[in-house]
Input
Amino acid sequence: MKSFITILFSFSFGIAFSQSRLVLNNDAYVVIDNNAFVVLDNSNPNAITLTGTGGKIKSEAEGNRVRWRGIGVGTYTIPFADNIGEGGTKIPYTLTIGVAGMSGATPHIDFSTYDGPTWDNATYMPSMVTHMGQLNAPNAVNHSDYAIDRFWVINAQGYTTKPTPSSMVFSYNDNEHSAVGNTLPEANLGAQRFNDGGNTWGDMLPIGVVNTVANTVTTPAIALADFYTAWTLSDVNDPLPVKLTDFRAECNNGTTLIKWTTQTEINNDFFVLEKSFDGYVFFEVSRINGNGNSNTTNNYQTTVASENKLVYYRLKQVDFDGTVNYHNIISSNCSTKGFDVLVPVLTSNELSFIIKTDEDDKFNVVLYDYKGRLITEKSEFATKGLNAVKISNIDLSAGIYVLSIVGQSQVYTTKLFRR
Output
């Protein structure tokens, strides 16, 4: 039998209800409306608990908030949905806090998310956002076509020092990037926040790893100084005075060959190839002269030494006047050592597989459902050779799942089907 809870609010700026724990079972749902908010008076991450097939919370407006009091170190998931009913789509948001904030009078974080009716985000921006110029100045051309048609409002208040996120996971719907009017390749999505103090998007470039199967973007650690309120997912290539048509990494006999191609260049002085081991903190590897002003195709390449691990690369492009623009992030693993995953099997209550590794290694095994909700996570140590791994008592319903195995030198991801 389907369980459901419908809570409709018809008043403004009021507390819908306050409790220490909210349990949603078998797709039960809560609807927040008219600038009301649900208060969770419990700092434990299990203050929202999903059982059975889970549950949904509909926000769909900036002022319709979930207020979670006393958030500290831990992983907090809000089971947002874009609409309610049998056809409602789950788009959960997860915030993992790595460093607790300094508590003030009433420390809490307000969470809300909402989409818009068209590609033009400038017509429904959060109250603290003044433009959709992306990397440009406030009066720049509207670049809403390079941003997903959804905003997230994550507002930490009442702390003398805010908590520091170690990651965020944003979920989205395909129609929010593919709607007519958008120019937004899904594979280019990254999380970006608006600096309402500096009135700009571009002092922090889009970050994170997109999973186009699970429809999620997972960020690395967020610097405390970047934990602003308004977030969206935008094209990591927007905007660019240099039009980049290709940027890739190829393994080549113990080295990594980085290649890119431009279609047009405007006042392009030089490129800086930057490298990172976590996808967040980058450092310079080499500089390559640009072609100034050009309307013809230009091919570039440079070689870097390979690392025995996953490595991220990005391009910084510098104009003659010193203006800096960043292009998208790519990853590469050209290590000579690694691992294989053999015969992964998923049953109703068990995940099993074999890891064949070239060296002793520590692995992090993560299983998500199709919408990016964490099912189970476990650390495993494997010795050189074949290692059988089993994770039991996970109680899975029929459906599609995503298995991710992260080692020291590579990442393995695959879809599994539980029938």
Remarks:
- The longest strand covers residues 255-276.
